[in-house]
Amino acid sequence: MQTNGTILIIEDENNISDFIATSLRAQKFKAVCTKTAREGMELAASLCPDVILLDLGLPDMDGMEVIRSVRVWSMLPIIVISARSREKEKVEALDLGADDYITKPFGVSEMMARIRTAMRHGAILAGMGAPSEVFVTGGLQIDFGKRSVRAGGTEVHLTQVEYKIVALLARNAGQVMTYDAIISHVWGPYMDDNNRILRVNMANIRRKLEKNPAEPHYIHTEVGVGYRMEAEEE
Ligand code: CA
Known about the structure:
The protein is of the alpha/beta class. Helices cover about 40% and strands about 20% of the residues. The chain has helices at about 15-25, 35-45, 65-75, 85-95, 110-125, 160-170, 180-185, 195-210; strands spanning about 5-10, 30-35, 50-55, 80-85, 100-105, 135, 140-145, 150, 155, 175-180, 220, 225-230. α3 links the parallel β3 (about 50-55) and β4 (about 80-85). Bound molecules: calcium ion.
């Protein structure tokens, strides 16, 4: 049978694991489930799935160990399934190399959207596709070649730093970027671990891009974690 891809689910809660597997199979994905980190690492290596969905609280080991061990040999996309209000954990998982997270409880459409984004990103990393040179979401348009940004049909003038932040988020659209990841991309690894300058820049970016900066449509805040650019339109 032709499948849309193989998804490895590492989750010890039966009801969550069953819900995910059933939803994926209904969308013609192959879903493989395991309850332990140890078996998850083995399956990751033997199956080479398209995406791993990973719970962090596993009976035999911390899920963080799975991220660490997979990242030694592979960039295959990992989406962490996380409990609400554990922001520190999400940041740690993303900094260790997880691609994204979904917060329990989540719906099927949100999960499918995250999986599609992760698979697209995985394909780009594997050299199977290139990010388009023009990024479009809603009324926002970024031409990477010309370094130009338009919002609602008008050219927007961004500073160098503002453009770097917007372009980085657009290159990773649909996925959250942590504050630290953005800061080290834009200012380099020696920048003080101080989010204030990023917040100031983001306020200016939103003033320029968004109709109502208090209710942003393009760049969303993931409280305590980072920022997420709205995914590109299909
Ligand atoms: Ca668990």
